[in-house]
């Protein structure tokens, strides 16, 4: 995507807003785990706009969500969000709508979130990395088929 139109800007803004709502208000959060569907607008952005713009959408949504809603900014979570947006864009933009591609994408995204966010939680709270890893790994494994199914249904 080379030229951004007004329609693209409006769509990207809507995706940012939906990401914030799904992430901050319509998700289940504990100190070590968060379950929600905030990945859906990012996958849509990845399908429509590619890696660069999906990464920008993810970072803007994270920064606005932190600034307006929680107020507890930590750059590690923003870096993780940027990498997740980058991954969705790389794997979903102008790529075959094959389940294999989607599963690989969701596995990579979940590994990024698992490793980096577990480290971020350790740095922020002091919860042991290895103590929280099994719970977070279980959630990551559980979310792979859910994310893959939702993304596949969105593509077809």
Automatic annotation (TrEMBL):
Keywords in alphabetical order: Membrane, Transmembrane, Transmembrane helix
Record field: transmembrane: 9-26, 32-51, 63-89, 101-125, 137-155
GO molecular function: transmembrane transporter activity
InterPro entries noted in UniProt: ECF_S_folate_fam, ECF_trnsprt_substrate-spec
Domain of life: Bacteria
Name the record gives this protein: Folate family ECF transporter S component
Species of provenance: Peptacetobacter hiranonis (strain DSM 13275 / JCM 10541 / KCTC 15199 / TO-931)
